[in-house]
Amino acid sequence: MKNPHLIRRAVDHVTRNRYRYVTLAFAFLLCKCGVEKVGGWEASKLECNTTNLPAEALPGVGPLRIAFLTDLHNSPAQFNKVVEVLRHKKPDLIIFGGDLVNADQRFRRTRWAVNSFRELTGIAPTFAILGNHDYEKLEQVERVLSTAGVKLLRNEAINWQTPSGTRLRIVGLGDWNEGDEAPQRCLLKNGEDTTPVLLLSHDPESRWGLRDYDWDIMLSGHNHGGQIGIPFTDVYLSFRSSMPAGLYSFEGNRQVFVSRGVGSVMGMRFFCPPELNIIELGTSPVRRTELPQSQP
User: Fold this and answer.
1) Fold of the domain built from segment(s) 47-281
2) What are phi and psi of 274, to 5 degrees?
3) How far is CA 60 from CA 53, 64, 106, 160, 257, in A?
4) Can you give the residue ranges of every domain in the chain?
5) HSE (side-chain half, CA atoms, 13 Å) at 98
6) Are residues 189 and 212 in contact, defined by beta-carbon separation less than 8 angstroms?
7) pLDDT exceeding 70 applies to what percent of the chain?
8) pTM to 2 decimal places
9) Alpha helix ranges (H) inside 90-169
10) How confident is the model at residue 108 (pLDDT cuts 50, 70, 90)?
11) In terms of Cα–Cα distance, which of 124, 142, 146, 126 is closest to 134?
């Protein structure tokens, strides 16, 4: 049997200090609401960032403007902003890097997604790959893309004629986290061809299994920049990748570009705003992040 004296002492302690506990609880809720408010405000923003690459990044392709968006995560408002920006940017090519949906949220009344993707296809040829979240709603995601006229590349390659009349090989892989990637079906081995290759793979960590294949630039997302950045720097915190966001060199002349993404998980970001990316080929290069070339 519990000691009644101990129970009485505990009740008396809580009674005497009830105002302190109420104050602490109120302060906690206030801080929580403040964090959610600030994080939600940051997650609702959208930057349009341009990365300039030299012409030799995709040899022989000529001047080319690529719009890259990824990780929408069921965000109609963010998608509307993307469409509005791209109407003015007039890219030659649009790439969607996967994760249209959130795996743990319902995806219904998908007209917003169909309409926005249709808008994109009216601006420029649009290609897409799947992200890990998309496999939870695979039938719906595939239907949305097909209905909107977006070409889904799932372990598939397509030869696309650039505005300058040259050929660019665009290769889209299945998601690495889901074990769906099959590079042997759509990529050639190193040295087998000289056609420039733009590789689409949702998670940049997939790069380690693609060393023996021929590709020039990889476009990825998935990491969201960790959704947390260090204030007043371009440093982003991710505990699952050495490439949280930005442009990176990989094994010689290859380059991996990782976007922070358009949407967010849990609806919050801190010093790591969502972004739409414009990649300009044939202009001055920007500084790239050099990383160790050994697999962790």
Assistant:
1) Purple Acid Phosphatase; chain A, domain 2 (3.60.21)
2) -60, 155
3) 13, 11, 44, 13, 20
4) 4-37, 47-281
5) 31
6) yes
7) 81
8) 0.84
9) 111-123, 138-148
10) confident
11) 142
